[in-house]
Amino acid sequence: MMQDRYAPFDAQLRGLAAEDRLRGLVPAKGHDFASNDYLALANDPRLVNAAKAALERGVPVGSGGSRLLRGNHPEHEALEAEAATFFGAQSCLYFGSGYAANLALLSTLPQRGDLILYDDLIHASVHEGLKARRADAVPVLHNDPQAVDDAITNWRARGGKGTVWIVVESLYSMDGDRAPLADLFAIAKRHDAFLMIDEAHATGVYGEGGRGLSEPYEGHPAMIALHTCGKALGVSGGLVTGDKRIIDFLINRARPFIFATAPSPLNAAILREALVMVADTPVRRTRLAMLAHHANTNFANRLGILPSGSQIIPVIIGENAAAMHVAQRLQGAGFDCRAVRPPTVPAGTARLRISITLHATLEGIDQLTEEMVLAMQEVTA
């Protein structure tokens, strides 16, 4: 009898189902409390018109190849130049996704003999880069600058002589809390280390002119930032900013850049307009901050949830099945809320990740809160 070649996959899928961790693709439906389209730019008429204008002037949809072959386009270079100016960095490189950019950064820049210190709640894309790393890598306690400082001091005392790379998110995607960037930057300067900041959920939303939480530190030799383009900027891709020597090294050594088809020149053209919109419509950030404050206050008063202080509000439930029940209950009431389960979050911390965007209204947040209260009563009864 021939072995069923699909048996290993079937067994794993059954195992996921038994743990309430089986996932499927569900279309967007109902009031948006799940997306990362924080500034509601993804379908904004200005970006639609920017796309039309770009097509009319002959910007291609596809690049046709790697940037190092024939895939490099003037729109890529224009975006990188404008983004470097916008963020206050010396240079910039555009990747097809933030995931690919993190993979490239961690697998390329730290060298043998170096040390990578990464926050233990860092994004999965960083972990993928760490799998291909040359340097030693050590997790540090979440948002604990003293742990970082101690780890560097102890490593040096044991004979470590390479460069230290401190890797954090400025705003954590599953908890909505901010990294202590001022303390971490001071540590990086004191130890001649690099500070690598993933700005995925802060770009466009925070900082002077929407430049992100790393804005005060951009342009410093110790700083490398990743500004994801598929969230508040409304398009896709990732912009790495830093010293020109870092960018040149990535162009020459980063396999996820070298061996990938270049991002769409059309997307690059649209992103240029997105950066202009972030700069010239501060009212979007002001309204988003007001909506996020209202939601945090509602959840604190009605559900006893500590405010995250950002547009990301985790409602930690614990068990996978209970988190799924609450999500389905809210979806049935017309609210697009999704359950996030391990391994995306630690075991026993399954949650709803409530995302506040400019698609929300004060009335909608109030209604969501009331439905959430009822749903939570069902799983805690």
Task: Walk me through what this model shows.
By secondary structure, this protein is an alpha/beta fold. It is built from 14 helices and twelve strands. 44% of the residues lie in helices and 15% in strands. Helix 6 links the parallel strand 3 (115-119) and strand 4. Helix 4 (74-87) runs parallel beside helix 11 and helix 12 packs parallel to helix 14. It is globular.
Keywords:
381 residues; alpha/beta; Aspartate Aminotransferase, domain 1; Aspartate Aminotransferase, domain 2; 2 domains; seven-stranded mixed sheet; three-stranded antiparallel sheet; 12 strands; 44% helix
Write the layout of secondary structure elements.
Blueprint: H1 7-18, E1 31-32, H2 45-56, H3 67-71, H4 74-87, E2 91-95, H5 98-108, E3 115-119, H6 124-131, E4 136-140, H7 145-157, E5 164-169, H8 181-190, E6 194-198, E7 223-228, E8 238-242, H9 244-253, H10 255-258, H11 265-280, H12 282-303, E9 312-318, H13 320-332, E10 335-336, E11 339-340, E12 350-355, H14 362-380
Biggest sheet statistics: 7 strands, mixed
Q: Quote the beta fraction.
A: 5-15%
What is the end-to-end distance?
51 Å
Oligomer: single chain
Care to count the β-strands?
A: 12
Shape: globular
Tally of discrete structural domains? 2
Looking at this structure, what is the CATH superfamily of the largest domain? Type I PLP-dependent aspartate aminotransferase-like (Major domain)
